[in-house]
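Take just one protein record:
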Amino acid sequence: VSADKWTEREIAAVSLMAGGGAMIVTGLILHAVASSTLSELDDDMARRTTSQGGVTYYSGITQKAAQQALDSHDGLRLGGNMTITLGLAAAGVGTWLWLSRRLDSDGKLSLAPTLGPKGLGWSLVGRF
């Protein structure tokens, strides 16, 4: 890092690495909450069970409540997986920007976020 000020590339790199790290932690938290939801479902199902004629009845929870708990668990795990994946991608791009910041000292290569008709993306521009 230069003594005077950070370049745009260094700011982008640190921002992406920090944001990616935060997203990874958020994804891990979502996974922990999903596991907690599944543990609560197991506790509810085990609370009042009866067996008759080889069939086990779970009277501690309704079928609808059990399905809602499973859907919540699945949604949290999917959200956690997506958040972790996006966080890894952001941290990876940030790391690449940080490690390659000295490779292009003459400004012929630039990487910048761009807003297009289908969403946000990255543009890599080079002058030769």
About this structure: The helical segments are 8-47, 63-99. The two ends are 26 Å apart (CA to CA).
